[in-house]
């Protein structure tokens, strides 16, 4: 389980968390700027906040396909003690921990990041289930609602639809007595109005125009998309803050457009809003476009109406707002997607099985090699002892060698033949490690020079494993080289001392 969380964390750190972090900084600054722009038209605030919200999933989805800007630092490996009687110390290569037995250790940071990713997925599933419940509630409400058969409201709806430019087929239904007017439905919109409003001609015009503006702008479809994004990314507080801002701007911009077109006078419309803002017993689904937004205060709506009731936007201004919002979405999304390592944009194919080997395999091969050597040494102990005694008595050619370091340091005596055999063994190990290191380097070069990878995540993991293998082999080869030079220096020094005597 820990290995799974560690792997998930290492995969998600650049594919998910880095784009989210960049988006948080950019969107946070943009939200602060929008909050201070009091003179900004609510329709502009509505579209810009939508663009910021949608930039997060777009950036996460585009991360594997956009070239990265952050360099991947060089891999480093800590010192690896000799395997002669000492356990291998943990080392790190490009974020991959190596345990004492040569295998991969546990990276606590990556494991915690993987656990956080699992929690985010579970939260997203729960929030999406709530959204599915709201959609089922709207579907049942549409099935049980009564169709308005009164000719006057239907005739008034057709008249106002022509004036507002709505050409889509619609249904006018009677909602529950304690509900607020609402609109929902993507392909065949439904306007649901309670009987208390249907019986009041003065209020009916304002409600119908308000809901027709929602239909003309496809606010239900946009609201559904916003709900999907906020449910999938429910862990982020800024997502919910943007969602509330979108809901407020959606209704205030609709109010401003209703008054700017001159369909309703400000005073009756303000009285209508005051009436619909009273608490109701009927639960309002979050995805529906309602005249009464739960997160919007009446005072804020009235102030927006006062400031923008006489500012009618031209078609060129509306087009500029849409293009500007789209540009903001693209720029923020690309900035988040670029928050990845440049190494991840390199492409290749899956390497052959002979070239891809686990780091633990190398360590096991070296351990087996030394075990064989130890067995051979034990078989020759008796003969060496006799030879050492004879050499000592006749010529005094006994060499004292020091090996290891710290608490693992020890000394032993050997003849010239034993010293030469030890030097030969160390040279053989260096040649073996050099060959394995070159094979790993060739495998990395083959990956980088290949075609586009079909599985980028598996490609990155393979590169990391090969780099860890290469760096471990280089570190072990350096250790053998130091041992070789130490034994050779001791042997040459003592040999010259014996010759001078």
Keywords, separated by commas or semicolons:
501 residues, alpha+beta, five-stranded mixed β-sheet, two-stranded antiparallel sheet, 15 helices
The best one-word shape is rod-shaped
Quaternary status: single chain
Radius of gyration: 37 Å
Q: Which spans of ≥5 residues are poorly predicted at pLDDT below 50?
A: 72-104, 342-357
Short description:
The protein contains 15 helices and nine strands. It has helices spanning 2-36, 42-62, 108-144, 151-164, 195-198, 201-216, 219-232, 237-260, 266-276, 298-308, 315-337, 359-379, 381-394, 416-448, 456-500; strands spanning 91-93, 96-98, 146-147, 171-175, 182-184, 190-194, 289-290, 399-403, 410-414. Helix 2 (42-62) packs antiparallel against helix 8.
Overview of the structural elements:
- By secondary structure, the protein is an alpha+beta fold.
- Helices cover about 65% and strands about 5% of the residues.
- It has 15 helices and nine strands.
- The chain has helices spanning about 1-35, 40-60, 110-145, 150-165, 195-200, 200-215, 220-230, 235-260, 265-275, 300-310, 315-335, 360-380, 380-395, 415-450, 455-500, and strands at about 90-95, 95-100, 145, 170-175, 180-185, 190-195, 290, 400-405, 410-415.
- The strands form three sheets. A five-stranded mixed β-sheet has the order 3-4-6-5-7, sandwiched between helices. The chain has a two-stranded antiparallel ribbon with strand order 1-2. The chain has a two-stranded antiparallel ribbon with strand order 8-9.
- Strand 1 and strand 2 form a beta hairpin.
- Helix 9 (about 265-275) packs antiparallel against helix 10.
- It is rod-shaped, with a radius of gyration of 37 Å.
């Amino acid at each position: 389980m820990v290995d799974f969380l560690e792997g998930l964390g290492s995969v998600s750190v650049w594919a998910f968390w880095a784009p989210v972090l960049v988006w948080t900084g950019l969107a946070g600054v943009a939200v602060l700027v929008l909050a201070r722009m009091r003179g900004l038209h609510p329709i502009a605030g509505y579209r810009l906040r939508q663009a910021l919200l949608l930039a997060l999933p777009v950036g996460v989805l585009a991360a594997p396909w956009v070239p990265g800007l952050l360099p991947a630092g060089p891999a480093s490996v800590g010192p690896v003690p000799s395997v002669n009687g000492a356990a291998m110390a943990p080392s790190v290569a490009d974020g991959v921990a190596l345990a004492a037995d040569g295998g991969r250790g546990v990276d606590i940071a990556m494991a915690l990041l993987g656990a956080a990713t699992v929690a985010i997925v579970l939260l997203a599933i729960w929030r999406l289930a709530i959204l599915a419940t709201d959609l089922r509630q709207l579907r049942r409400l549409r099935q049980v609602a009564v169709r308005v058969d009164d000719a006057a409201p239907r005739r008034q709806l057709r008249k106002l639809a022509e004036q507002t430019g709505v050409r889509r087929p619609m249904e006018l239904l009677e909602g529950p007595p304690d509900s607020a007017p609402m609109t929902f439905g993507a392909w065949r919109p439904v306007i649901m109005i309670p009987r208390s409003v249907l019986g009041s001609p003065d209020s009916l015009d304002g409600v119908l125009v308000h809901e027709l503006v929602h239909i003309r702008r496809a606010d239900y479809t946009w609201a559904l998309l916003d709900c999907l994004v906020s449910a999938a990314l429910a862990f982020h507080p800024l997502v919910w803050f943007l969602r509330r801002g979108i809901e407020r701007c959606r209704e205030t911009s609709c109010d401003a457009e209703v008054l700017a077109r001159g369909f309703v006078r400000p005073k009756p419309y303000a009285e209508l809003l005051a009436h619909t803002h009273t608490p109701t017993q009927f639960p309002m689904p979050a995805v529906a476009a309602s005249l009464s937004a739960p997160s919007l205060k009446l005072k804020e709506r009235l102030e927006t109406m006062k400031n923008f009731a006489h500012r009618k936007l031209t078609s060129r201004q509306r087009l500029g707002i849409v293009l500007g919002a789209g540009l903001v979405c693209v720029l923020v999304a690309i900035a988040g997607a670029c928050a990845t390592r440049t190494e991840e944009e390199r492409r290749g194919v899956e390497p052959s099985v002979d070239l891809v080997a686990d780091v633990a395999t190398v360590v096991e091969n070296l351990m087996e090699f030394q075990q064989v050597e130890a067995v051979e040494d034990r078989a020759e102990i008796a003969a060496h002892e006799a030879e050492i005694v004879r050499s000592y008595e006749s010529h005094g050619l006994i060499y004292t060698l020091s090996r290891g370091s710290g608490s693992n340091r020890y000394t032993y005596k050997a003849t010239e033949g034993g010293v030469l055999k030890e030097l030969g063994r160390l040279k053989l190990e260096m040649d073996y490690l050099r060959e394995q290191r070159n094979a790993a380097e060739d495998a990395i070069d083959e990956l980088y020079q290949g075609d586009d990878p079909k599985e980028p995540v598996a490609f990155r993991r393979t590169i990391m494993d090969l780099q860890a293998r290469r760096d471990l082999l280089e570190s072990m080869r350096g250790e053998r080289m130091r041992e070789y030079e130490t034994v050779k220096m001791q042997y040459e020094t003592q040999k010259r001392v014996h010759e001078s005597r």
